[in-house]
Amino acid sequence: MSEDWNTKYGPRRVRRxxxxxxxxxxxxxxxxxxxxxQAEIAxxxxxxxxxxxxxxxxxxxxxxARGGVVTRVIAxxxxxxxxxxxxxxxVRRIPTAAKRTGT
Length: 103
Description:
By secondary structure, this protein is of the alpha+beta class. The chain has helices at 21-31, 35-46, 50-66; strands spanning 2-7, 10-15, 69-75, 81-87. α2 packs across α3. The termini are far apart.
């Protein structure tokens, strides 16, 4: 889809491409960690039925659960590829020791 409008420098065109399913799931994973919510967000972005997206979200979550690092290759302009690496760091919280009363 494209949209044209006239400016003082001449007509301008903006190209609008819907995201791929993988890109939509990647964006949804950045918003929430809940797999059902990810599927709903990705389905809304793509305009696809929820059932088809849920299967793909579950498949990608299993792959991500095996390792801690997810690498995505996103095609840029004219087929050039660039890698996006997302690393999740697990934060360990040490419970605070019970407050001691002085002697």
